[in-house]
Write a structure and sequence with these properties.
Elements lengths: L6 E4 L8 H10 L5 E3 L12 H8 L6 E2 L1 E2 L4 H13 L4 E6 L4 H4 L11 H14 L3 E9 L6 H9 L5 E8 L10 H7 L7 E4 L5 H10 L5 E4 L1 H5 L3 H5 L7 H17 L3 H15 L6 H9 L4 H10 L9
Parallel strand pairs: 1-2, 1-9, 2-3, 4-5, 5-6, 6-7, 7-8, 8-9
Length: 313
């Protein structure tokens, strides 16, 4: 079962899929059509350095900056900074469920503010010649909130609409509301990108059978857990030793870019929460790495397990 025409996007994950990770991944696994930066937002009337690096970094040519905003002034500031760096496609995050974001009226916390969303979209399309997509959920409190948002989207020339079929209050757990997604698909005028809980080729195949007209797919945690996932979906051949080479490059690049072994160890622990899924005894492996309090202990934990053995599913 091959999906040669389907497009696959790497979802942004705050703290994980920065420009270093994206560029290393793209060098080893040439299977992604678009990458998205973790969200960029204004803080104290400026951009923090890490955000500047995301939009200034030498990219692989298919990276889309994602911004977080709840008003026109912040939107203008962010779009001006992004466009200065020669990006022609941008994504607006209306889906982030984290309370620290949603309670400030951004991400999924803005979904119910239909008039405000309409005003911001109107401002963007009157003042900028860009491809703009939005990433959203079905709502924050209720899956029916999307019903009033679709006419707003349809009123503007959006490039794509990326939908994660949960509500904000769920965070990343609980039911994915596929029935509601089926209900809204015919109402949406724009190309739809599906996002959410694609961890195996089997899960993807079931979604593809249920939604045969969807040909754009965004995957985040599934790709962090199994970097070969899209290649498996596409039924492309791959070499298992690519994984070790990938991990070695991850280690080397972050060692070179981060400030000292403590910072490096913290970053590696974040990644191994996902990476461990590719290996036998994943829980024991991750637990051993998580308990490491020095790089020496980290090496010992890694060497305790044979990381040349992989899980194939």
């Amino acid at each position: 079962m091959q999906f040669k025409m389907d497009r696959f996007y790497f979802a942004p994950l705050q703290g994980a899929t920065d420009f270093i990770y994206r560029n290393i991944y793209n060098a080893h696994f040439n299977c992604i059509d678009k990458y998205f930066t973790p969200f960029i937002r204004i803080e104290k009337n400026t951009l923090r350095n890490s955000y500047k690096k995301e939009i200034q970094a030498e990219q692989n040519g298919i990276t889309i900056p994602q911004f977080l905003s709840k008003n026109i002034d912040d939107t203008k500031f962010l779009l001006d900074r992004i466009i200065e760096n020669k990006h022609s496609e941008i994504n607006w995050n209306l889906g982030c469920p984290y309370p620290m974001v949603a309670k400030k009226g951004m991400g999924s916390g803005l979904i119910k503010e239909y008039e405000q969303i309409d005003k911001i979209l109107d401002f963007i399309f009157k003042n900028y010649s860009i491809n703009l997509s939005v990433k959203c959920r079905l709502g924050y409190d209720s899956i029916d909130e999307i019903d009033q948002l679709i006419p707003v989207f349809n009123n503007h020339p959006l490039h794509e609409v990326i939908i994660h079929p949960r509500i904000g209050k769920q965070l990343y757990k609980g039911e994915v509301f596929l029935e509601k997604l089926e209900e809204i698909i015919p109402k949406l005028k724009h190309p739809l990108v599906y996002n959410g809980d694609i961890y195996t080729p089997e899960i993807f195949n079931k979604l593809k059978q249920r939604f045969p007209n969807i040909d754009r797919w965004m995957i985040g945690r599934g790709l962090l857990q199994d970097p070969f996932l899209v290649m498996k979906i596409k039924e492309k051949s791959y070499q298992s030793n690519t994984l070790i080479e990938f991990y070695n490059d991850i280690f080397s690049e972050y060692e070179r870019n981060l400030n000292g072994p403590g910072h490096l160890l913290s970053k590696l622990k974040e990644f191994w929460m996902y990476f461990a899924h590719s290996f036998p005894e994943q829980e024991k492996l991750y637990k051993a790495i998580k308990k490491s309090k020095s790089m020496e202990a980290y090496y010992k934990a890694i060497n305790k397990f044979n990381i040349n053995e992989f899980r194939n599913s």
